[in-house]
Amino acid sequence: MLDPEDRHLLTDALRPPAGHAVDAALATTYTLDLHTLLLAPLAMAAYDHSEGDAATIDPATPVALLESIRRHAQHTVVLCQAAGIHVPPTYPRLAAFAEGIVAEVHPPPGGTFHPKIWLLRFIDVSGNHRHRFVCLSRNLTGDRSWDTVLVCDEDDDAAIIMDAAPLVTFAAEVLEMLVRPLDDAKQNLINDLFRTFAEARLSVPAPFTAAEVLALGTPSGGSWPLPTTALSWMVISPFLDVGALGRLPRADGRRVLLSRSDTLDRVGRAACRGAETLVLQPMADVADLDELLDADDGRARQAQGPPPRGLHAKVFCWDDGEAGHVLTGSANCTGAAFGANIELSVHLTGPRVTCGPDALLSDGKSGLLQLAQAYECAADEGVDDPAYATERRIESWHAAIAAERPALEVTQPGDSYDVSLRLELPADPHGLAAVTTVRPVGLYNAQPLPVGRTAIWRGLGLHALGPYVVLSTTVTLDGEDLTRECVALCDVEGAPADRLRRLLRDLLSRQQDLLRYLTLLLGDLGADDLLDRLASDDDDAGGGLGVGFGQWFDDLVLLEPLIRAAARDDDALARAHRLLEDLRGDDGELPALDAEFLELWQVVWEGRHA
After folding, report:
1. Distance in Å from the first CA to the final CA of the chain
2. CDD domains given for it (predicted)?
């Protein structure tokens, strides 16, 4: 259990079973990275209805990413903490097509929205559903931390199952805390997901013999689940506090705390109650070679800094003599986690010999201990960390601003757009409004403006009319500036109704990009190879693909894929039709495609419906 060599990727957890595609998805996360958000639809689409390990979409191509977002954004909802979105180094154009995925949650005062789960529903070509529950300690970010993941797939033949109904109850109660309600289409989608998910038989992975959902901070949520006494226990948590440590079971056996060095120093030796205190070995946090090379060479990496590393897993493990217990999920060993936050974990039970603390720790050669080393707290008593407290205060301030539903009002005085911010500031007991600025996320070079004054940005393009703004607050602490930034969602009023269609036309304005997209939709990688070869020849000739091949080129590349797609009678032609309709201009014309291709397309499309 928790063998460092047994690693899993988040993308693997989102991958549909053989012969299935993602039909509906609801995710929760505390923090969110907009770049990582784009990878979730890609993981879903890469194996849509695939029967094996062969991907149906090559995830390395930009058109594959665009198609993945367009295909899955409409049935994906990601809930995150209000103002919990990281500031991206860039705002990619493709992100516009994922803007409707994210919804912010504003929990009750004093708490944060902290669960990290996925409720997934898959569908096969016959319309049959399968469900999957994923419980993580990892946020939807690009962090390289040590985290845990529990995956429970629906299995009608499973001998041991977990009741899925509490998951639906938890998610439904969270939806009551949204800053903005979901639109009708998304709400209906989620309601239908809840209807089928509640009846799913979620299998419990071996060697566990029972599993139970533990929700915290919601009306139907539970409370501190650990007993008052145990034979032994181990707690893995990047954050600790004295109050929660004092509630850990009395135990005569082994007691182990694995955390971060700064966290252990902050609580002090006395609060650890004689437990062994461990931290990860330095080598466990070393970046791999590829990442080091990227860090040396990438300007974007320099701008955003290296991805966070270190311990991020949250596990409570104890044994009562007969059984071993594991609590895994989002809850840290803190009073906030069990007294104010919205959290979700799973309590797993199994034989002590395979599920207790001894199994988790192993012998130091094959289990988690091979990554850990002893750590001695700096002092008996904990130390105050003013920076930590100040950062939490700023985060609460940003969340309060986001909960006020700021709005961006768009006007078009000429060819470009002007955007003004409408915001009613929340209560400001710490005087943070005077040191907080705001700017649209797509305007990297724009002057941030004071949040409490009239804020207008002029001369924006379509891409910059997105719903995100960057909040930045800087305070001086012991003579040094401390800055915290985040992205908050806004309502957007007055933007062109056809903004996404016009952005799509811009993205596919080059002939080779549109042809490559069509070959992907038609499911013909051979045609894509031909396109690459001809594009290379064209580039060598210096003429550019859009002008070098003449009117016969798109007919040549797409003729066979069209015929094969029609013969398969799957949904490939429907997806191509949807793309072409989305690309039509106000005059009904399509960009970058000649009349001969359109005539060919019309024959195939009408033949399909004959």
Report:
1. 58
2. PLDc_unchar6
Query: Residues 81, 86, 90, CA angle at the centre, nearest 5°?
Result: 145
Closest CA to 101 of 489, 422, 581, 401: 489
d(CA 581, CA 593): 13
- CA angle in degrees (0–180, nearest 5) for 417-419-421: 175
Using alpha carbons, select from 349, 79, 121 the residue that is nearest to residue 214: 349
Residue 10: the pLDDT is 78
Which position has the token pair 């903005």? 180
* CA atoms of 390 and 402, how far apart (whole Å): 19
Q: Decide: 314 and 332 in contact? Cβ < 8 Å.
A: yes
Q: What is the pLDDT of residues 212-238, one digit of tens each?
A: 999 999 999 999 999 999 999 999 999
| Closest among 31, 112, 122 to 78, alpha carbons compared | 31
The rounded distance, in Å, linking the Cα atoms of 593 and 515 is 9
Location of structure tokens 């007055």: 494
**Structure tokens, 521:** 């939709």
Q: How far apart are CA 334 and CA 352, in angstroms?
A: 26
CB 576 within 8 A of CB 518: yes
Neighbours of 287 (CB within 10 A): 14
Q: How confident is the model at residue 302 (pLDDT cuts 50, 70, 90)?
A: very low
CB atoms within 10 A of CB 120: 27
CA distance 610 to 602: 12
The two structure tokens encoding residue 145: 């931390």
- Residue 479 to residues 243, 384, 475, 476, Cα–Cα distance (Å): 31, 17, 10, 6
Render pLDDT for 47-60 as a digit per residue (tens, 0 to 9): 665 665 555 555 55
179-188 pLDDT per residue, tens: 999 999 999 9
Phi and psi at 221, nearest 5°, equal: -70, 165
What is residue 511's predicted lDDT score, i.e. its pLDDT?
77
Predicted pLDDT of residue 522: 82
Distance from C-alpha of 382 to C-alpha of 323, rounded to nearest angstrom: 34
Residue 289 clears pLDDT 50, i.e. is over it:
no
Q: pLDDT tens, 479-537?
A: 999 999 999 999 999 999 999 999 999 888 887 788 888 888 887 555 555 556 555 55
Residues facing residue 133 across a β-bridge:
119, 152
